[in-house]
Design goal:
By secondary structure, the protein is mainly α. It has eight helices and no strands. The mean pLDDT is about 85.
């Protein structure tokens, strides 16, 4: 098709002629896709560039000033859309394998790591069980319900809210000393 033909089709398309839109899309989408692919975009991104380019044309309030320049306008718009895709790609954080982060299975720990974690947890809770009752109860609350506020912890323990911080410090210091005696370094 000649540029003049594109101009006539575009004028008809903006007047509401759906056949003219189909003819334009059929005749010029290859140009837009070629430009998008020249930016090394994959098929999906190239198709998005093509769709956005046509959408930008359709959303022009009064069409093009010179409808005969349609191929040049589409080429320029396709280049800008391709650059926009590349710019947005720099902001994306890959999650691997095309899956969402939530859908990706977490790697299983090695058997050695599982045994070491289990042993660490066992020793920790044995040390907690040897703490005085109020310290033990505070540590368990901190471990199982970390969202409790000082006031809520105080209500659970039956102590004034201002006593929670000092009690927590004493309980954790006592637990740290007990674990150090057993050979566990807090660092």
């Amino acid at each position: 098709m000649a540029d003049a033909d594109f101009g006539a089709l575009l004028t008809r398309a903006f007047a509401g002629d759906q056949a003219a839109w189909r003819a334009l899309v059929h005749g010029l989408s290859a140009l837009i896709l070629a430009i998008a692919r020249s930016y090394r975009l994959g098929d999906a991104d190239a198709s998005d560039v093509c769709q956005r380019t046509w959408l930008a044309l359709a959303q022009l309030p009064s069409g093009l000033r010179d409808p005969a320049r349609l191929p040049a306008w589409l080429a320029t718009t396709a280049r800008r859309q391709a650059l926009r895709v590349l710019k947005n790609r720099d902001r994306e954080v890959p999650t691997g394998g095309g899956e969402t982060a939530d859908a990706m299975p977490s790697p299983l720990p090695s058997p050695e790591l599982s045994v070491l974690s289990s042993e660490r947890d066992r020793v920790l809770w044995q040390a907690v069980d040897r703490l005085p009752p109020q310290h033990r109860r505070l540590i368990r609350l901190l471990a199982t319900r970390p969202s409790l506020t000082h006031a809520e912890l105080a209500a659970e323990l039956g102590i004034p809210p201002g006593s929670v911080g000092p009690l927590r410090r004493r309980a954790l210091d006592r637990l740290r000393r007990a674990l150090t005696v057993q050979g566990y370094d807090h660092a």
